[in-house]
Amino acid sequence: MSAAETETVRLTKVRKVFPHPKIPADGRPRLRRQTDHSKDTVALRAVTLSFHAGEGTALLGLPGAGRSTLLHLVTGVLRADRGRVLVRGRVSGLIGSGAGFTGDWTLRQNVVASSILLGESRDRAREQADAILGFVGMAGRADARLRDLGPAETKKLGYATALHTRPDIFLSDDELVVGGSDLREASLALLAQVPASGRTLVVTSNSAKLLPQLCTRGVVLDEGRVDFDGGLEEALSRYRELRDEHRSRHAKDEEEDDDDADRRRRHDEDDDEEP
Amino acid sequence: MTATDPVRTPPDDELEPWREPWRTGGVLAVLRNPRLLWQFVRAEGRDKYRGTLLGGLWAYSKPLTRFLVYFLVIGVLLGLSRRVENFPVYIFSGVVVLQFFTSSLTSGTKSLARQTSLMRRVNVAREYIPLSMVLANVRRLRPAMIILVAAGLITGWRPRHVAGFPEAIAGMVLLVVFVSGLVMITSVANMYVRDTRYAVESVILVASWASPTIYPWNLIAERFGEHSWISYLYLSNPVTVAMTGMRAAFWEPTVPLAPTGAPGEFPDDPLAPGGVLSLPLVPVLMSIAVALATFLLGVLVMRKHQHNLLLRTEWTP
Predict the structure, then answer these.
(1) In chain A, which among 133-172 make CB contacts under 8 A with chain B?
(2) Which of A41, A168, B250, B313 could disulfide-link to A18, CB 3.0 to 4.6 Å?
(3) What's the pLDDT band for B278 if we cut at 50, 70, 90?
């Protein structure tokens, strides 16, 4: 199959800006239109990228590089300000705060809704929900609310739902590096099936341990731009360069800026190849 | 391939057309995938009384109490029951409609702000959220309807009295369309200015007196004149029309009044049988226009704003 035929996600000169302040500090909305755009957060600047069926792609980058925004644009939760996002096939995945629709609903309601959203009939969705909940050993808790589940369990359920509903394009946020070792193994096995079965996998992670098991291609994003696009190994080393650059830059003014220290701490946790 | 297509094409079998993921299809998508809408409605309706001793019985307590209070205070104490035959059923058939309207509007207005996490997690048409609130409130009518039928059975309504049912159903459909349009507008407005929900609560208070819930609607005609614009405005309120329909079904069969006045005219005694049809035709048509226009406006408001809604929260991916 030619590259054009396997292409399932296409971003063309995509730009996404988050206006600042969305909610002013005092929480009171302003009726006047905001005119000062100097503090807007530009999450993506003219990103052009394609993802392909049968290919696992890792999105690497420092926090704030625009990886999550990119995935949210592909799911359609966000809309690009400029440029165009196109997809072919059903999109699903585990992004941001978790699986399902809402924590207010029960596990079963969430799983059933996810199946119906991907086009299943009601009866089929119910059967699937039973199978999924049984698979993750939560059949007895089907009527518990999703928000009462621990983060690791939520993810487990999310992966199981995504596996059973078989989206054509599967997106995963940083989440795969979280959780106990058996969960990690199980999620990895499920994720590895995605490209192997001819579907599209896009994962945002910086983990040199996990990514080689899933991805062959690596894309490094930096400050909203595609910094590198190629083999996974080169992408990982390019990412390390960026990270070290960032650290040395910030080591100098460490004391001055608490926010940056916070960001860096989060970034370090994110990175599981630390000694 | 649409979302409802039961047979899925394997990804590499046949090339699917490109689509822009943010385009959710809006209201049309909701109509095309009623299963998902129903799932929203069901999820909304469940476990409201979870952990309570009496459970689902509480659903009956609110309409019953409301009914008793209105009946005792306004009917007995203020003496309106002397003016209107079978006042308990008259008032309750109005209260049922009003209750539906107010609870749909309050919960619908808050719905989008409550479901921002859903909007971040899944890309579904945002219209599902306010519309499912309205339909969840339709489902919650059941206890009140059971009480209404019971009160009717005591006062002379019999199951063979179904002549008014089409009017009751048509009136409720009209009201559902109207309130769906309203909540699509108010829930979006509430995402921009959180004051909306409080403003809506005040408006509802006014609205509950701007419909013939606890007094007969000829009071308006008597006070302002039958063909005055105030009377027309009052009668073209879909809430009024739905109440009149509900009364045609459950109240009129229980009262021994003969029809007066020519059809299509203001009747001499507006409490005569005839339901919606006894309302003058012009206000009924106006109320249909009002409901459809509100719905259309709601659709347009949702369509214009649904992709800005997440920017109105404190969330950044």
Answers:
(1) 168
(2) A41
(3) low
Chain centroid offset of residue B293 CA: 16
Question: Is the pLDDT score of A18 beyond 80?
Answer: yes
> A11, A26, A78, A157: which to substitute to probe chain B, counting the most B Cβ within 10 Å?
A78
Q: With beta carbons less than 8 A apart as the criterion, state whether A239 and A220 touch.
A: yes
List chain A residues with CB under 8 Å of B11: 8, 53, 89, 168, 198-200
Q: Do A29 and B24 touch (CB under 8 A)?
A: no
Q: Is B307 on the interface with A (CB under 8 A)?
A: yes
Q: In this complex, is the C-beta atom of B12 within 8 Å of any C-beta atom belonging to chain A?
A: yes
The tens digit of pLDDT for each residue in A82-140 reads 999 999 988 887 776 566 788 888 899 999 998 888 878 889 999 989 988 988 888 88
Residue A79 to residue B307: CA distance in whole angstroms: 7
B residues 103-142 closer than 8 Å to A (CB): 115, 117-124
Give the neighbor-by-neighbor strand order of the sheet with A82-87.
A41-52, A7-18, A82-87
**CB within 8 Å: A87 and B18:** yes
Calculate helix-pair angle for A181-196, A151-165, nearest 10 degrees: 20
Give the mean pLDDT of chain B. 82
Q: What is the pLDDT of residues A70-86, one digit of tens each?
A: 999 998 889 999 999 99
CA atoms within 13 A on the CB side of A229: 7
Sequence letter at residue A55 = E
What's the pLDDT score for residue B6? 41
Can you give the pLDDT at residue A120?
Answer: 82
Please give, rounded to a whole number of angstroms, the shortest distance from the CA of B169 to a CA of chain A.
27
